[in-house]
């Protein structure tokens, strides 16, 4: 697992049923592209997050296939439909097999 | 005026052959409409290592993003699920020099749309 | 001849300079790009300012006699001296220095005595550009501006004080710090420290002032000094802000901008509903507003040389008419405001000996402004070549920096006025011919790209030891040719490495002595500065 990987998400605390809300996510990760060379001139092996998903109460919001051209500390912003109260689950999939997860509840008002 | 930008090749790149391959793979060779997907990117990148882009294609199930001038043009593919609130997404990407960023949307009616925007990656310096 | 000029100057009075029959119900006062010039200075306007694309031949891309013809300005008149190039040294001797924030204070007070509700708006590039500004990390300028009591400001070079210092100052400002395009870089959300706009109730009119900071800060200046922030033109958000303030009852929408003139023109075309756009950054001074659609654009010069007054008649939520006056600050004609003089002098007192030390004399009028070389930059490039033992010198095409007249002493203050910045290291490094070409092409495209949104508002990088030809109409990457090493007369070889000295690199960790030490050593070794005509850049397509 890449060290110091820390997900952060911004989700509104509440919404009305059927509302569309904006979500933002950041995860600290070097996104080593596999194209950089170290001081000795040898290629630094690729090590990136290759997939990001967001689900709400088990249903998918967005599923992103990520390539090495995604910047360090990947950022995503997108919109989700909130049909009912529940929980968002955010998952990042690392090349090394690790997954990082964050969850955020949302209330209906 | 920057020196370390030597690592960047600033000259515009020629479209990489694999851009066409990647698009063909995504579309199955279907025609691309000129409207139907919006791609937002800055005219000039503040930093070529982290260029904000947004794609928005109402009615899209998936949007493919490519950077035509990168050594490897693939950037990301956004697939929208049943609870997507819109068919919009933003992220930050790496651009190895001034080049065209391309978005191709697969619309729910089975057609495809394409948009492109040139982003300048500059050495900078100087000013008023 | 000189007689007529001196007579003209004697006839010039403060009342003449300030007189403007009051009009309408709202007054705006605009100052911008002061670059820490608290005392009167000389400032030569450019003789080369090329417009490209749709701005070819349009103001502010007219200079000298063409500019005077456009505005009906008589040769040798005060307006000739203040607004255009040509006969600069002689006119400067006749008309004297310009600017001085104590003179600006007099003008502001006078306008406020006639129009107590006038809004004073500062377009930025205020806390940068002098010895005392550098030594006090901007505090001298902050103190002076606080006494002048602006209602709002926006930003550019201020950020080169570093984001911690900017936060410290902005948190204590007794007026609005505006920038609708200043964003938190991490979450891409409006930065909390800066408001996009502020409402004012003046003259019975609800006025919204929207700020627009310099869009290309992290490119033109070192982004590592303010990594928390992102900028950009963000004209769609500007439209949202205009719509928002209109919906909030704004009867007059003013944009206080640091975009640069051509960028402002394009933004005024794209964004509807802006009544008055106060333009800064490119240091243009225009005696009349430029009209784009229903927006008037005001350009108020730089270095404290001008104050713009705009009177507006606003009725029923509409701008019905305007009167405008670009007031040149002739420092011998406008009486200094004693309170401001005392404050400025108190700021300078601890540094008096350093400021006034004469380090040489110049037999050539020294100036900077212009798309290509200015004599100040020729001197700086010579200093880099000799003091840093380089084949080629590069000096940034910044637009700030006052002028000195031939015969003048050069004090340390004068030298710092054209070099002071927070990243002054004079580097020395190897660059290939190929990379030098990339540098020149890249900077050229920042000036001569026909789309104003790609222009960063500086001038061309100045070169020493190198000549080249530039076709300003050619596409990006193909403008520069015939690059020649002056020392040998040989063509620059893309594959060969050259020793290059320069300064103001935007890269973190750049090493070298500060540029002012390099130039001071050079001037001291010369004693008297004498510069020949610089013919190293051949411009075509202008
Ligand atoms: Mn300026
Ligand atoms: Mn500026």
Explain how this protein is built:
Chain A: This is Thiosulfate oxidation carrier complex protein SoxZ. Chain A: InterPro entries: Ig-like_fold, Ig_E-set, SoxZ, SoxZ_dom. The complex is a heterotrimer of chains A (109), B (128) and C (542). Chain A is mostly beta strands. Chain A has no helices and eight strands. A five-stranded mixed sheet of chain A has the order 2-8-7-4-5, with no helix packed on it. Chain A has a three-stranded antiparallel sheet with strand order 1-3-6, with no helix packed on it. Chain A is elongated. Chain A starts with 5 loop residues before the first strand and ends with a strand. A five-stranded mixed sheet of chain B has the order 1-8-7-4-5, covered by helices on one side. A three-stranded antiparallel sheet of chain B has the order 2-3-6, with no helix packed on it. With 128 residues, chain B is mostly beta strands. Chain C is built from 18 helices and 26 strands. In chain C, the strands form six sheets. Chain C has a six-stranded mixed sheet with strand order 4-3-2-1-14-15. A six-stranded mixed sheet of chain C has the order 7-8-10-11-13-12, covered by helices on one side. Chain C has a four-stranded mixed sheet with strand order 19-24-17-20. In chain C, β21 and β22 form a beta hairpin. The two termini of chain C are 32 Å apart. The chains are: A mainly beta (109), B mainly beta (128), C alpha/beta (542). Chains B and C meet through loops of B and α10, β19 and α17 of C. The structure holds manganese (II) ion (2 copies). One manganese (II) ion binds next to loops of chain C.
